[in-house]
Write a structure and sequence with these properties.
elongated, 71 residues, mainly beta, single chain
């Protein structure tokens, strides 16, 4: 369930098995998952906006956002 990733905070990036990736130890990834009514015709109970923010060693932040529906 995508909601399981809400509030994920990885200080030092890890792979899908939870193993730290040494070359990415200076990076941090956070995830926010929120219900949204931004999609026309899709109830907010069935839609989520997912924001993934990665912060690098010089405190540079990049955020990617996506939408997911229950359909």
């Amino acid at each position: 369930d995508v909601d399981d990733y809400d509030a994920l905070d990885d200080n030092g990036i890890r792979d899908q098995n939870g193993t730290a990736i040494a070359a990415l130890a200076a990076y941090r990834a956070t995830v926010s998952v929120v219900a949204t009514s931004a999609l026309t015709g899709v109830a907010s109970a069935s839609a989520r906006r997912i924001d993934v923010t990665v912060t690098g060693p010089q405190n540079v932040r990049v955020t990617l956002s996506a939408y997911r529906t229950a359909w």
